[in-house]
Amino acid sequence: MKSKAVLTEGPINKSIMKLTFGMMVGMYAMVMFNLVDTFFIGQLGTTYLAAMSFTFPVVMIYSHIGLGLGVGASAVISRAIGNGDHETVQRLTTGALILGFGIAVIMIVLGLLTIDPVFRALGAKGEILGYIKDYMFIWYIGVPFVVIPMMGNNAIRAAGNTAIPSTVMIIGMTVNGIIDPILIFGLGPFPRMELKGAAIATVFARLTTFAVTLLFLKYKFKMISFAVIKINTIFDTWRRVLFIGIPASLTQFIVPISMGIITRMVSGYGEEAVAALGVGTRIEMFALAPIFSLGTVILAFAGQNIGAKNFDRLHKGIKFSHRFSMITGAILFIGLAFSGKYIAMIFDNNVNVIQIIVLYLILVSAGYGFQGIMFVTANTFNAMHKPYKAMSMNAIRMFGLYVPLAWLGSYFWDLPGLFAGVGLSAVIGGIIAMIWVNRAVVGLKTH
């Protein structure tokens, strides 16, 4: 099966929704992957949960590097698919994966050398810092198994297929869910390993997705071929992927760096607040899966239609995506307002932790629909090969709105004000993004 353009014709809304729902299955599997870890570690106690929460910004940074590289690969691959050039698709996919592996090795070395200073800077100390070291040493070793599947699945989505990447994510979630309790609690012949066990389970599950993704790319989609890789072309491939991938990765950096700053702010309110933030952000990932799925699909939709010069179709797709984001965001806000307490009780029985989780979910979810608009906008700019616009938009939101408004809220109204500032930053950022992307797409149509 050769990759071909499937998003350049047919009903727009139906095409986007079909791919979005397919992507949602995988997105929920990925979120459940993290929630399963959080659930089992929560059974060990609040101290362990706080240690896991401290790792979240750093894990996000490394994961987002893989996502950024995947965005770069998807942006150029989807255009090649839109142009009907399968040999270029193979060259770009194969070269991108080689590049990803090399970068992953560098990431391992940097991670292992900086565990102590990075987590001390985030506010970790004492017993919690020891638990973090146990977890992250093992997690860093598995970085290639995080990066390569992310890039590979983005390449498959660029071909307009979200079912197979979702299948890969479900496999990873299942493997992690089975191994996690065995190694964390020491079931059967296995010793009790606590956070180390969670890290080993994660690495093994990622290794599984690594193998399955490469098999699909090679044998089903025929998007991997070392025969098309030559020294004089691989550097051009890397240049094209990195032209999008570097700013996309920098954009992805912005989120966890900002999250790290927020974690540092929240740590001033105590261990319970940090534990609550960690749980809240994981619940948020689950809630936002439909919106993030839509944003991921838009990258392939926009790329293929730009490659085929279907600019009217692109504009209609963006407008539909904005409506979908706002409606979904409103539903999530209402749902979490009524169910947040019961969801929080699944992860911790500490009354103070539960109250903070509920506070976070109510105040931050007010901006979910606008977050969706920003995600759609960023991936539209990447598909247009204007990655610095995507990066600028996220930088404005995070450093111009997110962190300052959170700090101001914390200064005047303590923790509730901090969370309210986070929600308000999404609303303002979403409005800016909507205006910006509409002008950019109209500009494509007039050239």
Structure commentary:
With 447 residues, the chain is mainly α. The chain has one domain. Helix content is 86%, strand content 0%. It is built from 15 helices and no strands. It is globular.
C-alpha geometry: globular
Counting DSSP H or I runs of 4 or more residues, the number of helices is 15
Low-confidence stretches: none
Main sheet properties? none
Averaged pLDDT, please? 88
Q: How far is it from the N-terminal to the C-terminal residue, by CA?
A: 35 Å
Oligomer: single chain
User: How much strand?
Assistant: under 5%
User: What's the order of the H and E elements?
Assistant: HHHHHHHHHHHHHHH
Could you say how many structural domains there are in total? 1
Strands, total number: 0
Rg, nearest Å: 21 Å
Structural class by secondary-structure content:
mainly alpha
What helical percentage do the residues reach?
Answer: over 70%
List keywords for this structure.
single chain, 447 residues, mainly alpha, 86% helix, 15 helices
